[in-house]
Amino acid sequence: MRLDKFLANHGIGTRTEVKQLIKKGAVTVNDDIVKKPEYKVNEASDVIKCNGTTIEYEKELYIILNKPQGVISATEDNLHTTVVDLMPEFSHFNIHPVGRLDKDTEGLLILTTDGQFSHRVLSPSKHVNKTYRAKLDGEVDVEAVNLFKMGITLEDGYRCMPAQLNILSPDNIEVTIQEGKFHQVKRMFQAIGLNVIYLKRMRMGNLDLPADLDTGQYRKMTIEEINLVQHV
Questions:
Q1: Residue in 55, 49, 9 with CA at minimum distance from that of residue 26
Q2: Strand partners of residue 196
Q3: Residue 22 lies in a domain
Q4: Does residue 139 fall inside a structural domain?
Q5: Which of 19, 24, 91, 218 is positioned for an S-S bond with 37, CB 3.0–4.6 A?
Q6: Do 144 and 191 have their domain in common?
Q7: Inter-residue contact 32 to 41 (CB < 8 Å)
């Protein structure tokens, strides 16, 4: 990989900015100063430093975010704040959200550079559960639990996969689905005459939203957390 691309991919700066750093002699490869941006490095074995700080090689990036309301699950938008806008230090990475949460929905959202990971998590055939906490404008009863278990039919005729309802209180429930259709949870409740007034994703796969991750906060994921998401 070109040295300037390696540095840009690891969030050191734009391609133009890292070229300037390289030409100023701020970058070393295996302790030798390299001033050519096109210099080829072995990202897995070479020791690359910028201003004396070692740049750790990361093949892929995985970030967990406690998404706040009012932010859209996109990489860029001219009108609204995106989840990528919330993490400027990762703006030079080609990250994307794994699925989406509606603008007014909070909770667990993962961003990554790993397209294969996204496919594994989002494909209904992989049976990766997504659990949401929902507050409603009415009460859920046992009949609703059974309807969700059989598979709700949406207004457009789509038959959802079986889902699980856990009644925490009559108007405060948890719903677990394996799909991610547009506004799916809201539309499922609308199909039985209820409206969602608050929605928060609490879990993906076997990974719970970390209790110490406040709304709007994010961090890199551990290997254990990445595996928990994919484990079914």
A1: 49
A2: 136
A3: yes
A4: yes
A5: 19
A6: yes
A7: no
Q: What is the CATH number of the domain that holds 165?
A: 3.30.70.1560
Asked whether residue 48 is assigned to any structural domain, the reply reads yes
Q: Is 104 a catalytic residue?
A: no
Would you tell me how many other CB atoms lie within 10 Å of the CB of residue 229?
Answer: 23
pTM of the model: 0.81
DSSP per-residue codes, 100-134: ---TT-EEEEEEES-HHHHHHHH-GGG---EEEEE
Q: Angle at Cα 13 formed by Cα 9 and Cα 16, nearest 5°?
A: 100
Q: Is the dihedral of CA 44, 47, 49, 54 positive or negative?
A: positive
Tokens standing for residue 181: 């259709």
Which tens digits make up the pLDDT trace of 28-54?
999 999 999 999 999 889 999 999 999
139: containing domain: 129-204
Residue 211 lies in a domain: no
CA 198 – CA 196 distance, rounded (Å): 6
